[in-house]
Design goal:
The structure is a homotetramer of 336-residue chains. By secondary structure, the first copy, chain A, is α/β, with parallel strands linked by helices. Chain A folds into 2 domains: 144 residues, 3-Layer(aba) Sandwich (Rossmann fold), CATH 3.40.50; 181 residues, Dihydrodipicolinate Reductase, domain 2. Helices cover 32% and strands 32% of the residues of chain A. The first copy, chain A, contains 9 helices and 15 strands. In chain A, helix 5 runs antiparallel to helix 9. The longest helix of chain A is centred in the last third of the chain and has 18 residues. Chain A starts with a strand and ends with a strand. Chains in contact: A-B, A-C, A-D, B-C, B-D, C-D. The interface between A and B is large, with 56 and 56 residues. Strand 14 of chain A pairs antiparallel with strand 14 of chain C.
Chain lengths: 336, 336, 336, 336
């Protein structure tokens, strides 16, 4: 049984606590949060867990084997590295850390000490994204041309980060998981409301060597909640609408064929269209976060790299850094 | 009665012909198309119109007062300028011409000869866009922060232009009509399928001096048809979904207020959210193209500039040119 | 070439006129309507057709081979029988006539004179309904349990008929076409707004010998337009949403299996559920009314019974009569 | 503090337990369920609650002030009456009991002993239904013509009851709450799959003295989940779509006016249509079940009748009984 200490019981912490408690092989041994009212809630819901106001104290406890970090981004590196140094396995809320350099340092520390370091890229553990991965890997979509993602709603403004660092990690983690090829350059544009100091809307474009294009729209100031992804392949295309109660993934037998033609004089491509059936595969409906805690538990037991480990966490943060740099440089394309 | 000659009876021409025929004050006197099978259709539907295979012959006819140009983009300038030189009023399919310089030349020629020159920015004549204009002008949305438009579907690949020149004119015309301020710079990214020579997907970002941002996603290779626009203001926000059979425009009483706060030490903004009712105003449901032909007719009669004249047509093409240049320069931001 | 005379140029007549004109093998020779302003429209759109104010005159013309009746229901029988007596083939707007007895009389008259008598059950000619028919006939849904149809909107109140006679013929024609078995009894309930003399909302239930149930909701006073049908089979189920721009028909691999079980004492059924993929077959998108006029033309040429002839028209009216009787008798179940 | 004992920890029990635990003024003192594995879950989630396998034992405990019954319908009467006889306040899962006579007996017993008896008509406590009630009471819809409700999905077949007793109580409770007038008669039709002994689909029509009509469609064997209600008034109409994540209630400024006209000869009504704006009021989004447990707590404290007490529970069961009788009598209209 891996005894887990959770740091941070704000927005996401309660979900992590519940899933840790319900994952066989894990037990929720302690929770740390500086706010007494949050610890009251912990005491009511998880009477077996020790309640602490000091994260350092939690990290130092001998009856803790693993630490889960669900605190603001700026604290990730310090808490994770201190935990690793206390020989605890670590699961960190996305994004892994504030810079790619920090991510790499954490990865090296974990590797040196033989500990499990994992980042909570939740969407990678959804039935929808898993299904999309299988479809792409099986070649069902054919050569991929683009991925377009929209993740917008009237969201909570964060004081210590802009919408890119808040929402885009979800999409970047999905792209990182689905697309074998790695991006070569990133550009971004955004805007902040008058009187505010952080972008509340941003567009990120990821360029790939083979012509594939990934584009993200993230927005804290939208009147409607949209969570939609399109992936276009030359054979088939798919949509992923996370707001649909069922049939989240739809595969369209639509595509285009290009025939260079033999008529030299017309030098004209013949474009032919296919528009066939659509189907929506049945998806695994289990809670994604349960997959996260289960993977953390198993990776520890099997002493192996988790599916979303330091490498994936670093790649996502590297794109975030580049997007941030592009935002500060008039949308210039930043090479990775 | 203004006697109209129509050049081009392909995809859009038949709609123009029908609306010309049904507009009081206009009559469809002649149609020119090089393809005999298209003229057969003309003869069946519009028995009163002369059928010609030669556009020049149509332009030269004395019994024609106005010419409507519904041919591929590369021919717009030549046909429109020749028509003006024959003292015909001219209505041109969007976009007005291939370059801003051509647009300006056409505008000057029309002004010199006292003729009406109009571009068919159809969406400007929809009940939905008209309603949005009134809402924005009345200040109901408050200070505008962004406009986001998605115009995608499995569309017909054009051999002589990319998706930017094909689809974006619609959105640029809407932005030009709705937003008083003019863009100062444009950037664009896109991708073309392997084996094809034109972008089939593109993203265009328009930057404005006051921080406002407009972003367009145009795509010929999408599995679903989406025609959705979001406009975010600090007071209210709206959505415009052209695929909705009714309630195309929805106004959300949602917004964010920023209070700088008086606590110097915390240096923290207080963000407060409003989430009130939504309403969908009743819209004028008349066919937009009918508004186009009616405006052409009235502008001729009243010897005035049409709502979408050479100035608007030039501004739209100037953005298209900049987007094209950005596409060829790694998405660099092009100053206007 | 079959020369067609059309009687009635109101709401549906113009659509019939257009499709007659565009169907090879048919020509629109004359149109009769008592209202001069409607004939003005005819003259503009169909300059080749004679315009008459008197339907009898049209029926009597020697240069007419077939008559299409698009007038109010109460006139169907007289116009259709007079046309047949003048040896004209006849296509009648739905429903065929006001009573099943009238329908049968028309059928006998047409048979005796060797003429084609057809009723315009438009939906039977849609790609969606055709596809559903093929799926059902192929046994893909398994044993059918129910059909549920909702056809509601803010509709035009008819002075001479209630919502049952106005809207339900569409659904009854679809049921008649899709379901091999015939209904054995009908019941109906409805309501009329205070101050009005016709039901504006009604529910019709059709009972079948094998336990199958068909239920229709028709409504002129609904705030939203819904055109949705569900068909439940034990193997699969489908939905047909006519308001969807594409994917109108969706087939769900969902169902229930009943296992009587072997445990006599518990006497309990084991119910197991299947919830698999959904798919939306590609549909023929041609205009349904074009299929109607084409079938009329071919049935005349081939001297055969049309797909929706007197028999289908009579069956539909028989259910309408029974529903009307049930409405007048407190919803009593009327045997057919 | 009212100490609550919960009987039944199956599908709905866990939700009740959670809300009891989180309602100030209530504490979850004990849970009874015959299945040890369910009690294991209770022990993990509610460590403070006593776990019992015998409901009678729970009812008899002196440290329990109130009993919540979340067991199959057939046990409601026995458990509720025994609880009342032990001087416990009682909250019963819907429907209150198997017959109206049982409901009345429970009501009388509670009244005699001065105890609170409440039925969990959950939907009455939703923000959506509360808002609809306010709109109707304020006369915003004008004279009501109909209420149409569809509550369908691929649902769990119940062995001891048909779909009417399982799903319709929700809608009947809403109708009972929204509509001041009481139904005078009920009719119902349904069907059961071959090999099964309970209706899996049913239609219920409620007739009212003033011409108002309420119609329910309940279905366990539908491929899609629909939870939609329409309410038509002569002034305005509304839709209530419980599957919408937001904007569940939409109010349409649509209606019809009937003008008897002054032209005696034409004896024709003039019908005029209004089609104005639609709006979606902001709704209270608190969990409905929390409103249920809060109302139970307050009614006990204030020694008053709860909003959904014995009277409402009896009225709902009376309609269920009538619907059942109609189902067994060929859909005959049963007077209430």
């Amino acid at each position: 049984m891996t005894r887990v200490g959770l740091i941070g019981f704000g927005y996401w912490g309660p979900n992590l606590a519940r899933n840790i408690a319900e994952t066989p092989g894990l037990s929720l041994a302690a929770v740390a949060d500086a706010r007494p009212d949050r610890l009251d809630v912990v005491a009511r819901r998880h009477p077996g867990a020790a309640c602490l106001t000091d994260a350092r104290e939690l990290i130092a406890r001998a009856d803790i084997d693993a630490v889960v970090v669900a605190t603001p981004l700026t604290t990730h590196f310090a808490l994770a590295s201190e935990s690793l140094e206390h020989d605890k396995h670590v699961l960190v809320e996305k994004p892994l850390a504030s810079t790619a350099a920090e991510c790499e340092a954490l990865g090296q520390l974990a590797a040196k000490r033989g500990l499990c370091l994992m980042v909570d890229h939740t969407f990678v553990y959804t039935g929808a994204v898993r299904k999309m991965k299988r479809l792409i890997d099986a070649g069902e979509l054919g050569a991929l041309l683009y991925l377009d993602s929209v993740r917008i709603n009237l969201g909570l403004f964060q004081h210590d980060s802009n919408v890119v660092w808040d929402l885009a990690p979800h999409d970047l983690a999905i792209v990182d998981y689905l697309i074998e090829e790695r991006p070569t350059a990133v550009s971004a544009s955004g805007s902040m409301p008058a009187g505010y100091h952080q972008e509340s809307i941003a567009y990120i474009t990821m360029h790939f060597g083979n012509g594939f294009l990934a584009h993200l729209h993230v927005n804290w100031l939208a009147p409607v909640k949209i969570r939609q992804m399109l992936i276009g392949g030359l054979q088939k295309m798919l949509t992923y609408d996370d707001m649909e109660p069922s049939e989240k993934v739809r595969v369209y037998d639509k595509g285009v064929d290009f025939d260079p033609g033999d008529d030299e004089k017309r030098r004209q491509l013949l474009v032919s269209y296919r528009a066939g059936d659509m189907y929506a595969p049945q998806l695994d409906r289990r809670e994604a976060l349960n997959g996260v805690t289960a993977e953390f538990c198993q990776a520890i037991q099997e002493r192996r790299e988790p599916l979303t480990g330091a490498a994936a966490g670093t790649r996502v943060v590297r794109v975030l850094e580049a997007a941030e740099r592009s935002l500060r440089n008039e949308g210039r394309r930043i090479q990775l």
